[in-house]
Amino acid sequence: MKQPYLLIGVCLRPHGVNGELLIKSLGDDDTRFQQGLLCYVTEDFGTKPLSSLRLKSARSTPRGLLLEFDGIDTREKAKALSGRYLAVSRDDAAELNDAFEFYYGDLLGMRVIDERKGPLGTVRDIMDTGTADILVVKDEGQPDLLFPFLKSIIRQIDQEEDVIHVILPDGLYELYRGA
User: Which of 104, 103, 142 has its CA nearest to residue 120?
Assistant: First the structure.
């Protein structure tokens, strides 16, 4: 289901002593992180914002983005944000160009159903490998199931019902979860 806020990043850890934060971007367009961007801090996808922060600066590194926010000027203040998500209002979101494009935040928490195996769990993370995004599907008591976000696997994404319908390649389910 479309949330009013779109997740754009995860606060990983403080960087340095002046309040800078290392962020994992949840998208493929880091140009969205512009000075003045109003970000909302949330605990998880689908939760209401805890607070808002105004972006002061952003720079890219091989490990992620380093962001500075107004009012976050010490390592301790930055550390308090570790593990939290950054979101923007859907009204401030970039336009999608393709019917098969989705915001990461809209996919997180969606149930995944395979046409042959049935319910697989829910999307808990999306890994950017550079070539194809990888969905991480969790189901209580089961190992995580990972598969690429490809048109050949994804059959339908129903945002109204919060369901992703898939057909996993032969052997992939068994690789992660056995017979």
Answer: 142
Measured CA to CA, the distance from residue 23 to residue 30 in angstroms comes to: 11
Quickly tell me which residue has 């969606």 as its tokens: 110
For the chain, what is the radius of gyration of the CA atoms?
17
Domain limits, the chain? 5-90, 107-177
More confident residue, 145 or 98: 145
3-class secondary-structure state, position 139: coil
* Beta sheet of 111-114, edge-to-edge order: 145-148, 133-138, 118-128, 111-114, 163-166, 154-158
Q: Which CATH architecture has domain 107-177?
A: Roll (2.30)
Residue 120 binned pLDDT confidence (cut-offs 50, 70, 90): very high
Enter the CATH code of domain 5-90.
2.40.30.60
Q: Which amino acid is at 9?
A: G
pTM: 0.70
For residue 124, give the H/E element and its range: strand 118-128
Other Cβ atoms less than 10 A from the Cβ of 79: the count is: 14
What phi, psi does 94 have (nearest 5°)? -70, 150
Collapsed DSSP state (helix, strand, coil) of residue 153 = coil
Instruction: Count the neighbouring beta carbons within 10 Å of the beta carbon of residue 175.
Output: 13
